[in-house]
Write a structure and sequence with these properties.
Elements: E1 3-7, H1 12-28, E2 33-38, H2 43-47, E3 54-57, H3 66-80, E4 87-90, H4 95-103, E5 109-111, E6 124-125, H5 135-144, H6 161-173, E7 182-186, H7 198-210, E8 214-218, H8 222-234, E9 240-241, H9 248-256, E10 260-263, H10 267-274, E11 279-283, H11 288-291, E12 300-302, H12 327-338
Parallel strand pairs: 1-2, 1-4, 2-3, 4-5, 5-6, 7-8, 7-10, 8-9, 10-11, 11-12
């Protein structure tokens, strides 16, 4: 195969899960030109992947009006059709990704096992051996269907040295040294019921200081800023607060060098597992079998509720889903992983 188009647009956590597909393609077809279509939030993530030759950005918001669609459809179509592809892989499985996959001129169009919104009319679903397994393996089943061997699952990410140096400076300006052992709290998530309560993070932060580990908060956006402020206010010694202070490349470097990362089913926590950092994922509405920290499923702590795995963005029962995961449960898992 000489030209392959991958369509995986969002969300950041899902794009992270799909990264091993790029490695699998280039391991099998090293001379192939790999083009990837993505939405803006995950663009920086893909720029760190050395196996992707070309990134096409799909700006969905520009297509929401008739005028925007008419103005932007032509340029997008021309970009995609600059090449003829041997295969198009739709790893999103939604109407928007199917519309993009349709533009790709290729004899083979494949998608993942659980395609929705009629996307299976454009790309053939691959019902592979991992159709009921982890989402990373479901994506890799699509790569296997075009002949890719998967000898090793690799999340290929290379942080530029300039960004690494900037990250060390950011740490220093926040009053910390990256050479000292630290634990990252990924405090946010798009789904409210994927967020562990701020008082639990605060209590864990104080306990980590007692273990000579520095707690570091990461995240972005107004909600995360508010949560970080509440955590800091509830602690005896405030953690290092880097919310809103880093870009994605700098965040990746922070996660790569952490002793441990803790958080819900969200992008930074999946990224942590992908780069090989010890990762504890706190889970409620989603299940570890599909969405847990890849390669570290034993480090997922699932909530003890009969209604877990509901896959609801907000709890229909108005419960604070992850509040049932106690601080001491996380402390015991940390002791196990860090032997403290």
């Amino acid at each position: 195969m000489k030209n392959i188009l991958v369509v995986k647009l969002s969300a950041i956590g899902d794009v992270i899960h799909a990264l091993p597909v790029a490695h699998a393609i280039k391991e099998t077809y090293p001379d192939a030109h790999l083009t990837w279509v993505v939405e803006p939030p995950a663009y920086d993530l893909l720029t760190m992947n050395p196996y992707i030759d070309e990134i096409i950005v799909f700006e969905k918001k520009k297509f929401k009006s008739l005028g925007g669609f008419l103005a932007n459809y032509g340029p997008l179509k021309r970009k995609i059709q600059q090449r003829r592809y041997d295969a198009v892989l739709d790893l999103q499985g939604l109407f928007k990704s199917a519309a993009i996959a349709r533009l790709g001129q290729a004899p083979v169009k494949l998608g993942m096992c659980n395609m929705r919104e009629f996307s299976d009319k454009i790309s053939k679903p691959v019902i592979g051996p991992n159709a009921e397994g982890h989402i990373v393996e479901r994506y890799l089943d699509v790569a296997r269907a075009i002949g890719c061997r998967v000898d090793k699952v690799v999340f290929p990410l290379e942080v530029p040295e300039r960004e690494a140096d900037l990250t060390r400076r950011i740490f220093s300006q926040a009053g910390a040294n990256m050479e000292n052992p630290y634990v990252v709290f990924a405090i946010g998530a798009n789904w409210p019921n994927k967020r562990w309560p701020v008082e639990n993070f605060a209590a864990l932060s104080d306990w980590l200081y007692d273990q000579r580990l520095i707690p570091v908060i990461v995240g972005g956006g107004v909600v995360d800023e508010q949560r970080a402020a509440e955590i800091c206010a509830k602690t005896e010694i405030p953690p290092i607060n880097l919310v809103g202070s880093t870009n994605f490349k700098q965040l990746t470097y922070i996660l790569q060098n952490a002793q441990l990362v803790i958080g819900g089913d969200t992008g930074p926590v999946h990224l942590s597992a992908g780069v090989g950092t010890k990762t504890i994922m706190l889970m409620g509405p989603t299940d570890a079998n599909r969405n847990g920290p890849y390669g570290q499923l034993a480090n997922a702590i699932e909530v003890d509720r009969s209604c877990k795995y509901c896959w609801k963005r907000a709890c229909p029962k108005k419960l604070d889903c992850l509040a049932n995961i106690q601080v001491n449960q996380v402390e015991e898992k940390i002791k196990e992983l860090l032997t403290i």
